[in-house]
Design a protein that fits this description.
alpha/beta; Helicase, Ruva Protein, domain 3; Dna Topoisomerase Vi A Subunit, Chain: A, domain 2; 5-stranded mixed sheet; two-stranded antiparallel ribbon; about 15% strand
Amino acid sequence: MQYPSKWIEEAVNQIAHLPGIGKKTALRLVLHLLKKDKVFTEALVNSLTNLKEKTQYCEECGNISDANRCAVCISHRRDHSVICVVEDTRDVLAIENTGQYNGVYHVIGGVISPMNGIGPEDLSIDKLLNRVKTHDEVKEIILALSPTMEGDTTAFYISRKLDSNLKISTIARGIPVGGELEYADEITLGRSILSRTSYTSE
C-alpha cells in the first residue's frame, strides 16, 4: 500500500499492531485523527501515556488498578470470604457487569498451556494459594475459568493445591464448552455465577 506521507505510514504501522485492526482500518483511523484538532490529539496522547505510566496492578488480587490495592479489594461492601478466580481483567469486567457477584477476585494472568510454554509457575497461582492461607476469612473459591481444555486443566491444578476444607465451586455450564468467558452475554454469565456448582477434580 502506497502512503502519501511517511508519517502516515508510520502511524498506520503502529496502530495496525493493535488486535483486530488491519492496515485498512488503521489508515482510516489515522486519516480521522489527522482531521481532528491539536487539542484532541494531545489529549489522546496524554491518556495513552497515563495508561502506561500510571496504571498499576492490585498487589492483592492482580486486577488493574489506580493504586496499590483495587477498589474491589478495599471495599467493605464486598464479601471477602469468597474469591472468584479468573484469567484476566476482561473476565472481572464481564462478571462485574452482571451485577450478580459481590465477592472479591483473583486474576491469575492466563491458563496453563504446555503447548504455549505456560506452566503454573508463569501464573499467579502461588500468590492465590498464599492469599488463601493468610486470610482466615476465605471460605469459598469460585473457579471462573473459560470452559476450554486449558481452563479445565488450570482449574484441576488449582483445586488439587487448595485446602480440602475450602468450598471449591465452578460456574455453571451455561457457558458453552470451548467458549471464552468475556464473550458470554451478561444474563448467561450472571446466572452461571448464581447457580455455581461444587467443583470436583475426580
